[in-house]
Amino acid sequence: MVETSVPGSLVIEVAGESLVLLPGRALWWPRMSLLAIADLHLGKGDHFRRAGIALPSGGTAHDLQQLDGLLASTRAARLLVLGDLLHAAVTDAPWRDAWMDWRGGRAALSVELVSGNHDRALRARAGLAAQLGIHVHGAALAFAPFLFVHDPADISDAAAGYRLGGHLHPVVRLPGVPRLPAFRFDATSGVLPAFTAFAGGWRVDPEPGTRLFACAPDVVVDLSSA
């Protein structure tokens, strides 16, 4: 197992590899210098405000600031988003300016995407991903022993690799505390929590054959034996 100096993190073994679960709702693969997140949903707040739903601004700036902290603490060379980097069509909304400023200051960072159901704009407009500084792999990225996807349920072939994805936004409920984002792992797949704080959730509970890890504000908590 690897050692980690990231406060509150937890090292686990998956498919023979040491992975680090971070309280900031991200997964770090130290051997490959890869930081993985799922469901960033850039522009979600803008999308709702344009629809007339009153929401506070600043969500994108908050998410990017958190991402900066994770990249600084892990020194990852690659950022892999497991689907739904975007939420809706790309417009001249404020989130795009924030993203372009953020991306422009990190030219050495490889930002990569496994395309999700909300990333239609990147598939529909040629050259858009390059403008945003993103490399799109398509629906899956095989990186042995893992197969990185958006929704692990979309691929059932175990021979393809241990599936790591997002899409489901797993959360747990503990007595006396608000719901918490969670990582969920079973024998064939793992699901990351939604990275954006502005997301709904799929409630998951401890059960035989699964491992659950809650992302408390400053620490990852192992609930597998709870």
Please, how many helices?
5
Largest sheet: 9 strands, mixed
Instruction: Please trace the helix and strand order, writing H or E for each element.
Output: EEEEHHEHEHHEEEEEEEEEE
Which segments are poorly predicted (pLDDT under 50) over 5 or more consecutive residues? 51-56
Radius of gyration, in Å, reads 17 Å
Task: Tell me the total number of β-strands.
Answer: 16
Q: Helix- and strand-based class?
A: alpha/beta
Instruction: Estimate percent helicity.
Output: 10-25%
CATH topology: Purple Acid Phosphatase, chain A, domain 2
Provide an overview of this structure.
It is built from five helices and 16 strands. With 226 residues, the protein is an alpha/beta fold. It has one domain (10-222): Purple Acid Phosphatase, chain A, domain 2. Strands 8, 9, 10, 11, 12, 13, 14, 15 and 16 form a nine-stranded mixed β-sheet that branches. The two termini are 23 Å apart.
Describe, in short, the structure shown.
The protein is α/β, with parallel strands linked by helices. It has helices at residues 44-50, 59-74, 94-104, 120-124, 128-131, and strands spanning 10-14, 17-22, 26-29, 34-37, 78-81, 110-114, 135-138, 140-143, 146-149, 162-165, 170-172, 180-185, 189-191, 202-203, 211-215, 220-222. It has five helices and 16 strands.
